[in-house]
Amino acid sequence: LYYKRVEEGKQYPVLCRRLASLHDEFISHKSPAAGFDFTSGKRIEQKLLDYNHEAQRFGGYAYEEMSEISPDHKFLAYTMYDKDNDYFKLCVRNLNSGALCSKPHADQVSNLAWAKNGQALLYVVTDQKKRPFRIYCSTIGSTDEDVLLHEETEGNVHVNIRHTKDFNFVIVNTFSPTFSKVFLINAADPLSGLALVWEHNAPAHCIIEHHHGFLYLFTDASKDGGTLDHHYLLRSPVHFSSSPRIWETVFIDDPEVIIEDVDFCKTHVSLIVKQMQSFKICVVDLPLKTEQIPVRLRDIQPRYLPLPKHVSQISPGTNYDFNSPTMRFTISSLVMPDAVVDYDLLNGKWNIVQQQNMLHERTRVLYGTANSAESPNIPSGTRIVSFDTTEDTSAENDNLWNELTEFYACDYHEVSSHDGAMVPLTVVYSRAQREENKKPGLLHVHGAYGEMLDKRWRSELKSLLDRGWVLAYADVRGGGGKGKKWHQEGRGAKKLNSIRDYIHCAKFLVENNIVQENKLAGWGYSAGGLVVASAINQCPDLLQAAVLKVPFLDPTHTLIHPILPLTAEDYEEFGYPGDIDDFHAIREYSPYDNIPEDVLYPAVLVTSSFNTRFGVWEAAKWVARVRDNTFNDPKRPVLLNLTTDIVEENRFLQTKESASEIAFLIKMMES
């Protein structure tokens, strides 16, 4: 059992493990970190990696991008951020001795995958523009030079690798603005070469998994070129004799059931599906009970797993153990702390193994006993339920989920934008403060890269809810709230749609008395900061205050003179200023280029870091121009907070920054 924990007073976690066979014999409820059995006097926990020590090696920072335990549990491969050189360094540690291996020792590593049952490690390195382009194979314990397996010489082709869950193959994805390809490497013989198994004449999202002699492909590639607005599942035998390889569709398309993600184990495939904007998890037995495919999903009677109400996101866990019927998911909601849940797909038992404790009488422990009845004094999330085939997945008792719906309500709205598009708007508020007339509000947005807006419970915002604030979340175009087409309608030359959607959602909150007039604030992170800043330019009186975190504020100059490396995805998302049409489109929405003169701006807090993809100078020059162009009002300050640290990887700095933002919002609303 592998887990990370934080020791008291330490900034970074420790990676540990203990034998699963000892899991039920020794349970430490209050301090699972202790790892000491007072009955036998034996220490049963092994510390694998102390990230506080890693911070000393890397200039005070411990920023890990990825880590992989070898299949034989003997080695840990991980990449650490080297701040001085601005790249990730590959490290391999012997878990028996705790020592670092002499090789592989590579810089600028973006990806890795184990092969030969842990005897070999494949890794990808980037060029000077941070483009992943080479795959190397290193034999652990050997003094031989690492072998170059593959190289992409074209400047717009990227490479990515991952192992299948049964460790039989390493999947190689290569993609560019004009194509996508997938290759297989035999993990037992990684030097045997790459075999092409799938290609498409357009950039497409594709994940391949191996299951009992079949390759399963989850993709959004259209059969006639381009991409679709949804994903679907294909299947093909591993050993396919003819060329080109033939892929068969597994499930018949159902517009009412959109498959968002898939995960495999030895006996089942789990599907995260979306029905009428509601997320569900359904389970299908493998191998399929029918030889004839494609089939309708509902015809093979999938089993639906129990979920709480108001689920905003479902994220599959790592689920490394391919042979185990237990799958882990993280269930997110705006009215419930994230719940890490283990589902046994064979018998229907489910257990909340970790969840932030907001209600002390409903504590969820990290390590509970196998049967909650054995330990009646310690609350546990373990429940045995009958599988549901009716698609009604709400649990019988909301209290099982540590939901906070007793105290906070969640409403959903559809807001008509400037062109009639209906924009999803989610609102959360305190039931105790529902009738309060003077309701301040905070409107969140992202709206870029087709990414889902982060709509999870954030304990730091509980302070605002309990003060009567309304928290709102606008799924504007450009994000992933309503599929790929929704993304396409808010990118490039259509970026203004994102900004206008946000403005209409803000006005909807005020006009419908959800938020009091002159009491609305905005919040945007990264590309979301661009949306909020552009909305302020168009309607300076729209917001009373705004928080912009590491915002993208000067797309014109950043895209045409990229001091920091940009990817093809960045140019596809915002446009290329070298093209005259794109240039004019960017100038029309660019926050820095459209700051109005002689107007009263809202109070703004801009936070940025010297360690971010968007240069710190963007925030500094934007703040300077706002101060120069607009009226100065001491009650509406425009503040700039810069750090030299990586805030995302420092829990103390995260807490400090969150407290500053919330204090700023409260003070600005009170003034």
UniProtKB/TrEMBL annotation:
One Pfam assignment: Peptidase_S9_N
Signal sequence coordinates: none
Limits of the Peptidase S9A N-terminal domain: 1-356
InterPro entries (UniProt xref): AB_hydrolase_fold, Pept_S9A_N, Peptidase_S9_cat, Peptidase_S9A, Serine_Peptidase_S9A
Entry's EC annotation: 3.4.21.-
UniProt keyword annotations, A-Z: Hydrolase, Protease, Serine protease
Positions of the Peptidase S9 prolyl oligopeptidase catalytic domain: 459-628
Keyword Hydrolase assigned: yes
Family: Belongs to the peptidase S9A family.
Function: Serine peptidase whose precise substrate specificity remains unclear. Does not cleave peptides after a arginine or lysine residue. Regulates trans-Golgi network morphology and sorting by regulating the membrane binding of the AP-1 complex. May play a role in the regulation of synaptic vesicle exocytosis.
Name of this chain's protein: Prolyl endopeptidase
Organism: Brassica cretica
